[in-house]
Amino acid sequence: MLAFVTTTLVYAAVGNIIDKDSLMLICSVIVSILMCLSIIFLYRKLQTKEQIFALNKKISMKSFFRILIVFMAVCTITSKFIFIIEDILSLFGSGFGKSLDRATGEWTRTSIMSIVYVGIIGPILEEIIFRGYILNSLKPYGKKFAIILSSILFGMYHLNIVQLLPTIVMGIVCAYVAIEYSIKISIVLHIVNNLILAMGIPALADLFPGNGPIIVYGILLIIICIMAIRIIISNKKNVKEYLIKEKTKKGLYRQVIISPLFIVFAIICVIFTFT
User: Fold this and answer.
1) pTM
2) Total domains, the chain
3) Which of 114, 179, 201, 240 has the fewest C-beta atoms under 10 angstroms from its C-beta?
4) Domain hosting residue 104, numbered range
5) Given this model, what pLDDT does residue 35 score?
């Protein structure tokens, strides 16, 4: 949200004299500064560093590898699912238009600074805010509720209909990891998504023209998905028990939806998403 609002304001002021890529880079730096200031404020007012970065439970390399495989599979599948919908809509003369362009824009891999921001700084700041402050603030109402609501807010925050589903799904995995293990691990997962899945693979495809990279990527994706399915099936009992154990108080989601704060946030998100 900060990125889009900042871009809009800066573009209105200097859009005629600065090219798009430079504009997005400038806005990224401004946003990172604003987010840093927000984190400093929240750190002083709400929670301590120990609460946010607490190690709730140690994770083995085997468990981390399994989570990483599932994470990469669900993030990639949900992202590709959007392109399938886009192809279907194009048959009827419609589509996501600029939302898809913003979600897949090449500006994110045009300079070292933008790569550092989108691939590293952005994920760290977003994890601290959403899987740190927001998730911990919602935790007293139940882990499942905290995971789902913080992930929905995370998806809405991106102000892009194309990114809504992928970011919500990604948020659920990161929130689960943060609440059960540590936010440090969710930061690693977020960086993997942005730096490798969203930026690295497309950049490699650009460097090596032809169908070769696409075929290799497709084969790797199939292998990862098969591994992820096996991991999910072998742990379905644990997942079911977790969902049953972490029950949400009846009517809690309704209270959130009709709350003035959520309504205002939702309206702002909708306005900036479709403008």
Assistant:
1) 0.79
2) 1
3) 240
4) 2-273
5) 60
